[in-house]
Amino acid sequence: MRHTLLTMQESEKYLQALIKGNNKTILEIYNKFFPKINSFIMRNNGKEDDAKDVFHDALMYLIAKHKEKNLVLASFEGYLFTICKNIWRSTIKNKKEWVMKDGVLPLVEKEDHLANFTLEQKHLEFYQEKFQLLSDNCKEILSNYFNGMSYEDIMTDLAYNSINVVRQRVFKCRAKIVQLIKADTRYKTLA
Amino acid sequence: MNSNHNDNMQKMIDGYLNGSLSLEQKAVFEKQINTDQALKEELLIYKALQESFNENDWHTLDKNSNIEDFKSIKNRFKTKEYQDISKNIKSVESLYCNKNKKKSNSIFYKLGIAATIILFLAIGLPFIFNTNSLNDYYNDYQNWDTIPSLIEKGSQNESQKIEELYTSKDYNSLIKLYEANNTNNYNNYSLIKIGHIYIELGFTEKAIEVFDKLIATKKLSSSKGYWYKLLVYLKIEDKEKAIEQLNIILQDKNNYKYEEAKELSNKIK
Q: What is the pTM of this model?
């Protein structure tokens, strides 16, 4: 409990420093967390400049989010890492889509990507919230399925009798989450 | 809609999403999507879910369908307040980079001298340049935030309680509960989370015990236990045990995180 309280206090300290421009603490954030993000981006086909952009955008996102609805974070590092990872996922996907569309990267203002990401992250959090409402079994099956596990592997892993039974479970669980999403009034405004 | 028809439709959706339909099947299905609004909506949600929950993908949005929200967020980031915050962060970033540049220049200068001496002494240099500690690798490779959360409302089994305490970050109560009911009634994801908390609280031997339990389940996912034991050894910087664990993972390509283990093995050994 004490450990959680300490990390929450640390999170608040960092968020306030970012908002108020306390450079000493912002430098501490760079010293403590940037190397890990840099290493993650490098391992995932990025360069140091990409890591700097991702880290900067993640901090901007955190500031905007904290100003909007007072973020209470049990782990600043964990949340920052998740946001950086998602920004990088979004960057790569956008690059791929642009290249597939017309072969060139469009010139966009730097705020465009951050605004896009903010909307996409909001959608992701909505889906995650609905995912939490599924049964244990559905979560386990869908989580494996969405991450590319074959029906055969799911069958072996979760000790099902046949691939057909697994397929039926995936269909049912997927239908259930769609039903939960559609039943939420926020869905229409998000879509 | 009868169940056979429904089943076929689901298979078509599956095939369409994973790209396994033939050109002919795809054309027929796309025609159907264009005339059936409900089917189209369902397909779009499936696609969004698949992209959102796949760690190697991302669900992008059509900017035009969210144009008002997009403009409002973009304008917020363009205000003087946010521009000033951004400039300030960038200035700290430059400071950080310059400091590290100097530090690394100075390290290289000292290393240059050391290397000359070491060459004379005929000691292998590769160790000098391998500056990453095992704990750095732990930070780079830990994947705790990718473990699915399996909370089911209304259910009261032990795994369920563990999930709730993990989600609410009440780690001390989680450990108390686990130690009071140290049975085999936990699902694999709960075991991973219990192990994670033991690591976070510094009880790494207990973490090993938990991951051994995971390995002993002998399910396909039990190989995750090897990976998480490896993380413990990286965390406590036990190179010998970490290599031992890597060798176990590398024995079978189907083992969890085989590719990452291969990559790590090259870096550590």
A: 0.65
